[in-house]
Amino acid sequence: MARYKMTVGKKIRSLRVLDNITQQELADKLNVSRVVVCNWEKDKSVPNKENIKKLAEVFNCDTKVITSLII
C-alpha cells in the first residue's frame, strides 16, 4: 500500500474544503483570524496544541488525523 506525505497545512485545507467551509468560517469557529488559518494552510505556521484540539472538534476527527504527516 502506498503512503503519501501531507503537511499539517494541507490537511487543514483538505478537511476545510471537504466540510465546505471558508477560511473565515473556520477562523470564527476557532476564535482566530482568517490570516492565521491562511498561514496554517500555506505552512507558514502551525497551530498550537489548543488549536489542534479545536480543529479536531470542528472536523470531528482525532488530533492524530491532523498532525500525522502520513495519509
Overall description:
The chain is mainly alpha-helical and 71 residues long. The protein has one domain: Orthogonal Bundle (434 Repressor (Amino-terminal Domain)), CATH 1.10.260. 61% of the residues lie in helices and 0% in strands. It has helices at 8-18, 23-30, 34-41, 49-59, 63-67. Helix 2 crosses helix 3 (34-41). It is globular, with a radius of gyration of 11 Å.
In brief:
This protein has 71 residues and is an all-alpha fold.
CATH topology description: 434 Repressor (Amino-terminal Domain)
CATH homology-level superfamily: lambda repressor-like DNA-binding domains
Low-confidence parts lasting 5 or more residues at pLDDT below 50? none
Count of domain modules: 1
Order of helices and strands: HHHHH
What is the residue-mean pLDDT, rounded to a whole number? 93
Distance between the termini: 11 Å
